[in-house]
Amino acid sequence: MEDLNKNQIILLVLLVSFVTSIATGIMTTSLLQVAPVEVTRNINNVVEKTIQTVAPALPDQPKQTTTVVVSEEDQVISSINKNIGSLVRIKQKVAETGESHFYGIGLVVSKDGSITADRQDIAKDDTFSATLSDGTVVGLTPTGLDKQTNFIVFKAVQPTSTSTKPVNFVPAILGVNEPQLGQTLISLGGDTSNAVSIGRAINLNMKDSGTGSSTIKYLSSIEADVASKDLVDGSPIFNLSGEIVGIKLASDSSKTFTPIAVLKKELNSLISPVVEPQKTQS
Questions:
Q1: Alpha-carbon span 50 to 47, nearest angstrom
Q2: 3-class secondary structure, 132
Q3: In a domain? residue 166
Q4: Considering the domain boundaries, does residue 195 fall inside one?
Q5: 267, 147 Cβ separation under 8 angstroms
Q6: Measuring CA to CA, how many Å separate 134 from each of 76, 110, 156?
Q7: Quick one: residue 262, left, alpha or beta (phi over 0 = left, psi -120 to 50 = alpha)?
Q8: What would the DSSP string read from start to end of 235-261?
Q9: CB 122 within 8 A of CB 252
């Protein structure tokens, strides 16, 4: 070292730094290959968004670039928070026995309190109530009992007391695009409290519709590798954008969800206003 001049020492330091960085990269790659799936998933799903802002100073001042890193954890939390206020838990009181039991999770689909849920066997005199995310309990009236659909719609009953504030209902965000294979999905279940599970779309089951040359394929069910122990009737599944892409129905097999497109199609007939015939004057 004493025989080296200043330039040689600088070159030696650069060489050592270069070799160290290569060794660090090799070691990091080796550790990622043996790391648990959840660890690598969080690392690989880090999203970098670049926001460019122009400084309002001198005209010749260069643009400032700010890098915002959004992790998958942040996206999961944001996705759930976008819809958590639109989920309710429905209880059914059977008129014949007087017993109450958990019916399933419902989704608010309109600001006037229309709530959709999995269609089950309902007696005419059974009564229903829904517990909102903030603990508020409202009565429900089932509609369209005679319809042959996968879903049923309940109409929330607003409190009649003038001292009680009316309930504000926030509709859930129903997805527009179908999920893709491998896409991260978040399920929410639990009959008394929220239980979250994270997985991926592992299978998209397609079916044919129509005959002959007019046959088209459509998405009939979504399979995801989420934990099934907390899934209940009506459990929704979200994407990272906060859109509900599927709902768990009683007729679905384990870890399988009915596409949200089915609900959106049936809502047109379930919540459409009933037009009463006009009376003719005699």
A1: 10
A2: coil
A3: no
A4: yes
A5: no
A6: 21, 18, 15
A7: alpha
A8: -EEE-TTS-EEEE--TTS-TTEEEEHH
A9: no
229 Cβ contact partners less than 8 Å away, ≥ 6 residues apart: none
Amino acid at 113: G
Q: Phi-psi region for residue 255, left (φ > 0), alpha (ψ -120 to 50) or beta?
A: left
Measured CA to CA in angstroms, residue 80 lies from 46, 235, 244 at distances of 18, 13, 10
Domain count, the chain: 1
Q: Is 158 domain-assigned? A: no
Q: What is the pLDDT of residue 163?
A: 63
* Other beta carbons less than 10 A from residue 42's beta carbon: 13
Ranges in the chain, pLDDT < 70:
1-4, 25, 28-70, 161-163, 212, 272-282
pLDDT at 17: 82
Domain of 230? Answer: 184-268
As given in the structure block, the two tokens for residue 177 are 């695009």
Instruction: Look up the CATH number of the domain holding residue 221.
Output: 2.40.10.10
